[in-house]
Metaxin glutathione S-transferase domain-containing protein (Hydnum rufescens UP504), 267 residues
Amino acid sequence: MPAPLRKLFALFPLHVYPGQSVTSRPASPTLWIHSPNLSTSPRLSRDVECLKWQAYLALRGITNISLRWDISPDGGINGALPALHLPTGDLLGPTRIPAWVDSVLRSPLDELEGYRDEQSRDESRAWIALLEGVVHNALAVSIPHHFSIKNFLDTPNIVDLVALFQRQLPLLPGLRAPIPIWGRSTPSVTTLIRYRDAIQSVSDRLGDDEWFLGSSAPTALDALVFAYLHVALGGSKQLREEVLNRPNLVSWRRKVSELIDPAPLPS
């Protein structure tokens, strides 16, 4: 490292403090989530993964769940949210939540996982792939990303600062510094077409059914569909309109919202 750069860094020494373990025990099971998008709901997470598990717990009938969104993602399992903090002091990652629910309800799901038959269960895998592929890609581009030092440092292919001081980097048109841009982007035409077709397919398959794939009770797929529809309504105008233009999705999403969180949704 060049001497001038070492001298500069010496003015800002890096101090690393040991992490603190969670010692408190909540009075009731508490789900740690990313904060809500207040334009769509005061309590439903803006993050698809968090909202999926928030919906899953409620739709399985677990009603005494408290919420916290004042915790950094670093506090979750493997540095990610959601995490379920139990009164016993245990902290569960998403993969352990279904087993915990089964133990609380004392009625684990059967091999059909709540679906009508094997065909419906197998079909659910295709819908999960569609949502977590096509729809997720559109949301990932559209939903604003908030700048933080951690995000900056974790960004792949970040410019090496030493190399930056040693050579001149060509800048893209309009850029004045080699810092990644955080904020809302516009999905490509291809991404929007695939997203529109996916939302139309979801609308057609739901039809007038109470639950997805005609199940008699909500399944994990219903939690996932709800999470993506809700988060899409907090995305760009193009993504919102694809949902809002389909009345059955709008009414279904509102119905499920009332089951998950009785607080009134913004009109």
